[in-house]
Amino acid sequence: MVTESVNVQRDTSPPQRLDLPLVERRQAGRDYVRLVLDAPAAWESLPGQFLNVLCESDPRAAVGSERRTLALDEGGEWPLATGLELGRRKWPFVRRPLSVSRVLRSGVNVRLEMLVRQVGSGTRFLAARTPGTPIDVVGPLGNHFTLPGDDRLCILVGGGCGVAPIFGLADWFLERGRACVLIVGAPAFEELPVVFRETPPATGDAVAPCPGFADPDIDVETILSTDDGSAGFHGTAIEAVRRRLKDVGDDRPIALYGCGPERMMRALARLAERRGAPCQVSLECFMGCGVGLCLSCARKMRDPASEKGWTYRLTCQDGPVVDAHDVVWQ
Ligand SMILES: Cc1cc2nc3c(=O)[nH]c(=O)nc-3n(C[C@H](O)[C@H](O)[C@H](O)COP(=O)(O)OP(=O)(O)OC[C@H]3O[C@@H](n4cnc5c(N)ncnc54)[C@H](O)[C@@H]3O)c2cc1C
Ligand code: FES
Questions:
Q1: Would you say residue 243 lies in a domain?
Q2: Could you point out which of 47, 197, 212, 287 has its C-alpha 20 to 30 Å from the C-alpha of 84?
Q3: Mean pLDDT across the chain
Q4: Which residue's CA is minimally distant from atom 28 of ligand 1?
Q5: Containing domain of residue 110, as a range?
Q6: Is residue 103 within 8 Å of 147, Cβ to Cβ?
Q7: What's the CA-to-centroid distance between 65 and ligand 2, angstroms?
Q8: What is the domain-level CATH number for residue 100?
Q9: Does position 228 have pLDDT exceeding 60, yes or no?
Q10: Residues with CB under 6 A from ligand 1
């Protein structure tokens, strides 16, 4: 099944390298930090697009050895680097892809919100930056989610760090007056990437709306779910979707949108297929360059024109947002 033009780039700034000042940093749950960056007034990106972020305080720093520096601008030779030297580096050599979670506009001021889960050296480097520090980014990169062509109900599902673009997607739907429900899932309460200003929802079977967990608020019906039942709906995000769909009824057309772990996205794609609904997902994978050069983000996608029935596509260019029905799930 083919949804609408998922890969069309519209109304977004051309990718550029920028030093964006960090203006705000806040812990969000146990593992996440919310970072807010100042962006140029002309900044335009759409939900699903990402930044490739340098996680290194000095890009010209020595490759492993303190004695040799990169001096490419001065026409110097690229230093010989052994695996051992690279292994000794404190910070990662390649940039790290991170979604633009939300674009916050106030008058001419544009701010980009990122939600960073600290999983390794790169994300820990970023999480440790203090306000005032410039963050070296390349972006906006990749494609973006698209709106449905009619007024169907859209269910937006985020899990893990995949919640980041889903928050921005909810803002985007809201701005355009589209009906949507946001479902945020995590294994347990402390793993939810949210800042609660109000009492977190009690656990139970209800898929009850939960206000006051984002800043600024996301003003759409939001359901939190935890696998262990420590807050919100007791069950996975996909079970919460199924429960919400029971209330919606079989006749109401819907569209599903998701970003999260592979298993969650595969389950969402199956649910969409059974219901005959369009489904767009943002894929997670390792990336290097972010611009189609290194081939590290190749991923099997269905291709009826190919003899094998599938072909490799680059997630950084043909994605990260794809039609879930086209994915060869791993
Ligand atoms: C398009 C895109 C958007 C993303 N947006 C966000 C975001 O908004 N917020 C966020 O916190 N993270 C996001 N990620 C994931 C993020 O890029 C990785 O977590 C990050 O690169 C890890 O870098 P590190 O140096 O901290 O960890 P590393 O030391 O490189 O790895 C630590 C651990 O994380 C795993 N890992 C590393 N990179 C990835 C990856 N890309 N996908 C899955 N597992 C990985 C490794 O297997 C390892 O177990 C996004 C990824 C993509 C492809
Ligand atoms: S990240 Fe280099 S080709 Fe996609």
A1: no
A2: 287
A3: 85
A4: 120
A5: 16-62+82-141
A6: no
A7: 27
A8: 2.40.30.10
A9: yes
A10: 50, 92, 96-99, 114-117, 119-123, 161, 164, 284-287, 320
Among 90, 110, 85, smallest CA distance to 100 is for 110
| 3-state secondary structure (DSSP) of residue 244 | helix
Which ligand is closest in space to the CA of residue 101? 1
Model-level pTM?
A: 0.88
Atom of ligand 1 lying closest to residue 92 CA: 25
* Ligand 1: nearest atom to the Cα of 123: 26
* Tokens standing for residue 311: 């072909």
Count of structural domains within the chain: 1
Residue for token digits 């099944």? 1
Spatial CA neighbour of 184 closest among 249, 228, 238? 238
- Residue 46 domain-assigned? yes
Burial of 49 (0-12, 13-18, 19+ CB in 10 A): buried
Amino acid identity, position 326? D
In a domain, 171, yes or no: no
pLDDT bucket at 72, cuts 50 / 70 / 90: very low
> For residue 113, which ligand has an atom nearest its CA?
1
Say what the pLDDT of residue 202 is: 63
d(CA 100, CA 19): 15
- Record the tokens describing residue 228, joined without a space: 């262990």
Q: Is residue 219 part of a domain?
A: no
